[in-house]
Amino acid sequence: MQMLLISLLVFFIGGVLSLLFSRSGRIASIVGAGSAFVASIIGLFPALHSLFSGVSQQLRYPWSMPCGSLSFELDPLSALFLTPLLILTALASVFGAEYLRSWSLKKSLGAPWFFFNMLAFSMIAILLARNAMLFIISWELMTILSFLLVTFEHEKKSVRTAGWIYLVAAHVGVLFIFVVFIMLGMKNGSMDFDKFALPPGSIAAASLIFVFSIIGFGSKAGFVPLHVWLPEAHPAAPSHVSAIMSGIMIKMGIYGILRVFIYLGPPHEWWGWLLIGVGALSAVTGVLFALAQHDLKRLLAYSTVENAGIIMIGMGTGVLGVALKSPLMAAAGFAGALLHVINHSLFKGLLFLCAGSVLHGTGTVEIDKLGGLHKRMPWTSFAFLTGSVSICGLPPFNGFISEFLIYFGAFYSISSMNGAHVFSSSAVIISLALAGGLALACFTKAFGMIFSGEPRSGDNSRFHESSPSMLLPMLALSSLCLIAAFTAPLTVSAFKYMLPQLTGMTFSTSAKALDIIIKPLWHVCFISAGFFLWLFALWLLRKLMPRSEVVEKTVTWDCGYCRPNGRMQYSSSSFAQPLTRFFNFFLRIRTLFKGPRGIFPKDSHYMTETPDIFEKGFFAPIFARIHDFLVLLHRFQNGRVQMYIMYIAAMLLILLIWKLS
Amino acid sequence: MNWYILINIILPFVLAPFLFGVINRTKAFFAGRRGQPLLQLYYDLFKLFRKGSVYSVTTTWIFRIAPFAVFSSIVCVILIMPCGALVSPIGFRGDILLFIYFLAMARFFTVAAALDTGSSFEGMGASREVQFAALTEPAFILCMAALACETHSFSLSTIFSRLSFASWSGEGAVLLLVAVSLMIVLLAENSRVPVDDPNTHLELTMIHEVMVLDYSGPDLGFILYGAALKLWIIGSLVVGVALPVNTGNFFLDRFIFLGGMVLLAVIIGIIESVMARFRFLKIPQVLILASALSILALILQVRF
Amino acid sequence: MDNFRDLLIVLLMLINLMLLASSRIRYCIKIVAFQGLIVGLVPIFAAENGIGIGIILTALCVIAVKCVLLPILLQRSQIIADVRREVDPFVGYTASIFIGIAALVISFWISTRLPQMEKQVSHIAAPAAIFTVLSGLFIIMSRKIALTQVLGYLVFENGIYLFGGAMLLENGFIIELGILLDVFVLVFVMGIAVFHISQEFNHIDTDRLSQLGDWNAELPEEIKK
Taking CB atoms and an 8 Å limit, are C92 and A585 in contact across chains? Predict the structure, then answer.
């Protein structure tokens, strides 16, 4: 715990120092990134220790804030979220130091590094806070700092719009979080988490709190339909910040839901159904929209929505397991969700860093303008490939393990308990399978179109691979994706310390349930290791074949056409078109098409875009109504000083009359 | 480990190419031809493995590694696959998922390699492959879920050792639905008529064959062999559901299982002879129908 | 026997799904005829205390009407009225199947909420019947051509019949015969109407029939003549 406080202090001091050194971009970067790296490494030790040993430590200081106290606690659940946070912050800061350098002439880099360090600071504070005031202040701090980071390139109009949408979405969420904490704290009149209790009339109240917490925290976690800020904010932010936001910040929403869930007592069955329903919707919708995007960072942002959905499905399975009193299902569901939290932050952080590297090396993330990058950026390509395989949930990488656990819970409930929940478990299975298949389409598209084939834009001679200090974090994350897969049984067995808290089961029950789940995981690891063995064996076999050395080089077979060029390749839109057309009743893709006309056709073009239906069809009309209403108030708020003086005078007069009469 | 478990591994590697021979013979019979020898694919493989290879200058190491990755995935699947009622070498709860996801892994690399060539043909095939796979996968997993519900277990070995003719007389409707659904999955996953036509390479209707257009020599050999193994793998699931013999006599059981596989190949041949390929717009509907069948199979078993 | 009966009922549900997915009217008519056959057979296999002559007679009567008479009438009217070959849906075939699956799940859920019948024949008969009714209604709602609407009514009626027949309701068959008569008249009237409408307008799209209403000032060309 002390080490964590030191880490917080280093974050803070480093941030302030980089602000002081903001004259020189280089020093600010080195100080900011260096302190973030060091602070993360310092913090990682207590986090890992608590995660694997189940020890929790507390600290409490009085605070002059009304209802507030500085109570901190590091328990395994916090440690679980803290671990990926610190790993990703350390690696992203190394990446960012180099990444931001190209701006150093145009902008001061002190402020971004201050914000970056303070963002990590605020997120750690959220995870450690055990007092509602402290929690909400840290939460607000996180929101504002990430807003400031999103609007790093505030001279662009699109970035300002994105930041605006993000800020509004975040504050709608905070409103509900306030209500949740007030309802929980009402009974004992204390905002400390350990004094939280359900208000009287607790059955309905618990459900209400649960729903509110899903709305409030869900707006941060990116559940459909509260995800609208993600595809705006992630592309706007600098890539290493997107990695942090997508990899970790949205997990704060998940953490919030889980933390509140602890205080709600035994869950109802329909809570699980609700979570599964929202999760399934997010998973499938997210990946469908991801598939239809042309901008790599938007694609990744939508894929974050998908993965948040998968985590939610896992939580739903777990909650349903608790409600049905099935320890195995509960353990599998929660274990899957928690493991996916770690896994997703690894591979999504990796993918965003890769996107940053592509942006850095080529100046664009428009998929249709890229192509053949593999030859120019081999290491980025390799890292993106591992990230893609992981995010598609394919063995032997880590994404598979967490999805496997969620499937395990669903299959267990189908095979051993018969009843109405077969429907919900089938919904889990269908949505995971569909999302998995679509994710495969989405990421083969992203990888294939950007890195494979020939360049689409003609000249790619100025494209260059990123420097080692950007590549190393990416390669570290790719290897972590693989390592996380093979150490998954150990990680899952550490969940026995937090499962009793979440599920209300005894320690021995949850440990026993986890033991049953871990057994197949070892098998999975075993067979996955075999995969690499066969790969190697086949490669050797190939070497042994009689004419293996005889290799002829030629062009790709082109059907006899003699002048193929890069623009004739399948583009990302054409690759995704069968699927997007198939789901067009949902996606509502807008097509602008002007075909060639006449004997000597001049210009023709074809363009598609996929606006977010929830933004355009749901939020935009609501906000338009609100806007219409607020316009009416313009009459009073017209900017003339005289009017405001008149208001004050009138108010004084009214008060005077009211008081004297 | 018992010696007979090795049969599980040896059988597919030895006999999988034979199924292709049977299919081709059946088609030839319907067309009134004599047809290729039954062992044609063995000759082809032998020939391909002794050849040199041609690579496009556009391709990278992904293209070179893809055949191995595909084949390794399939080897991993074979390790967890039961052979009729005979338990697999490695069986555990949830191996169904590893089974399906390793096949997806194979698909990922096939598609990545196809895109690596930068050819429009291959891009088109890859695009179709991922479209149909996204719809086949739910159907496949739902079939397994229905079987899991039927046999109260979700490890492949246990599922298939618990199925028997008694379950057909008890829950015939369920098993029939699953068998039909699995059959559709089999045709789609292995790119057979009516989803894809394995005979042509370059017409604009192709899926799997067009994705591997640029492969040659030993690489093509691995791909063909892998495709044959994949047909065997999914076919053995269909046979396991449709012909669940478990007499206890080891040799009789294996014999009936192999008979079932040959019969399956004949049926595939007949389907390919009497049916035309569907329009592409029609295929997703068929795949969704397969999902619908397995959902029906699942909810028929729900007791409230 | 039970197994075979359940198989028939499952087949009935599959036919509904196929009907939602198929695009050719002629094919749809055949499917509905086949459904009529199966629906007619179900009570025979569902009978608990032996197959009486009454049941067989009713079944034969039902099969004759549903599987032979009505389809022939429909096919005749299709040929005479020269209806287009595609059913021309408002809702696409794929979306229809999705909705079909949803309806399937919903009907299973509804059937669990129904009061338990003592003499209930098969636990899947009630959901199958509800599903058939729902898909009949959906076909009526989602297809444009008048002929498909008649098909929808037929499917709808099959569902009711299954509900009565398979649940062994008291006097179920008498009610059923009454409905059958209604449907018969309906098909008859529709056949005549379809024939005449198509003679007048050269099409039988119901969405364009709505233009006949006097609220619509812009009359179609054919009427202005």
Answer: yes
Residues of C in contact with A277 (CB under 8 A): none
Strands A605-609 and A590-594: antiparallel
Residue range A69-79, pLDDT digits in tens: 888 999 999 99
Residue B220: φ, ψ to 5°: -65, -35
Cα torsion A592, A595, A597, A600 to 10°: value is: 120
C92–A contact, CB cutoff 8 A? yes
Residues of B with CB under 8 A from a CB of C: 169-170, 172-173, 176-177, 284-285, 288-289, 291-293, 295-296, 299-300, 302-304
User: Any chain B CB within 8 A of the CB of A565?
Assistant: no
Give the domain range for residue C144. Answer: 2-200
Rounded (5°) CA angle A523-A529-A534: 120
Task: Tell if the CB–CB gap between C105 and A423 is shorter than 8 Å.
Answer: yes
What pTM, to 2 d.p., does this model score? 0.91
- Closest CB to B296: pick one of C13, C93, C97: C13
What chain C residue is nearest to B291 in terms of C-alpha separation?
C101
Over residues B7-66, the pLDDT tens digits come to 888 889 999 999 999 999 999 999 999 888 999 999 999 999 999 999 998 899 999 999
A466 within 8 A of A472, measured Cβ to Cβ: no
Contact in structure between A419 and A268 (CB atoms under 8 Å): no
**Tokens 């299709």 appear where?**
C78
Rounded distance between C-alpha atoms, residue A515 and residue A527, angstroms: 19
- Per the listing, tokens 């960012």 go with A96
Nearest-Cα residue of chain C relative to residue B301: C124
Q: Is B69 on the interface with A (CB under 8 A)?
A: yes
| Per-residue pLDDT tens digits for B271-301 | 999 988 888 888 888 999 999 999 989 888 8
Both tokens assigned to A172: 């709608």
Contact: B73, A531; criterion CB under 8 Å: yes
Give the residue-averaged pLDDT of A434-456: 93
Q: Do A422 and B51 touch (CB under 8 A)?
A: no
> Is residue A314 within 8 Å of residue A282, measured between CB atoms?
no
Contact present, A150 and A237 (Cβ < 8 Å): yes
d(CA A427, CA A433): 10
Q: Give A395's contacts in chain B (Cβ within 8 Å).
A: 76, 98, 101-102, 105
Pick B53's closest partner by Cβ from A414, A519, A551: A551
The whole-number average pLDDT for the span C159-185 is 67
Contact between A218 and A227 under an 8 Å Cβ cutoff? The reply is no
**CB contact, 8 Å: C90 with chain A?**
no
If phi > 0 it is left, if psi is from -120 to 50 it is alpha, else beta; for residue A597 that is beta
- Sorted by sequence, the CB contacts under 8 Å of residue A395 that are 6+ apart come out as A485, A524, A527, A528, A531, B76, B98, B101, B102, B105
- 8 Å CB contact between B293 and A409: no
Q: List A residues 622-661 in contact with B (Cβ-Cβ < 8 A).
A: none
The three-state secondary structure class of C149 is helix
Overall average pLDDT of the A470-497 stretch: 94
> C218 in a domain, yes or no?
no
pLDDT digits (tens, 9 = 90+) for C49-59: 666 777 788 78
What mean pLDDT is reported for chain C? 75
**Which residue carries 């969405």 as its tokens?**
C207
Q: Which tokens belong to A35?
A: 């302190």
Q: Which residues does chain B have within 8 Å of residue A407's beta carbon, measured at their own beta carbons?
A: 94, 97, 141
- Considering its fold, how many domains does chain C have in total? 1
- Residue C224 maps to a domain: no
Separation of alpha carbons C46 and A451, rounded Å:
63
Measured at the CA of A176, the angle between CA A174 and CA A180, to 5 degrees, comes to: 115
CB contact under 8 Å between B291 and C6, yes or no, is no
Which chain B residues are closer than 8 Å to C105 by Cβ? 295, 299
- C-alpha dihedral sign at C112, C113, C117, C120: negative
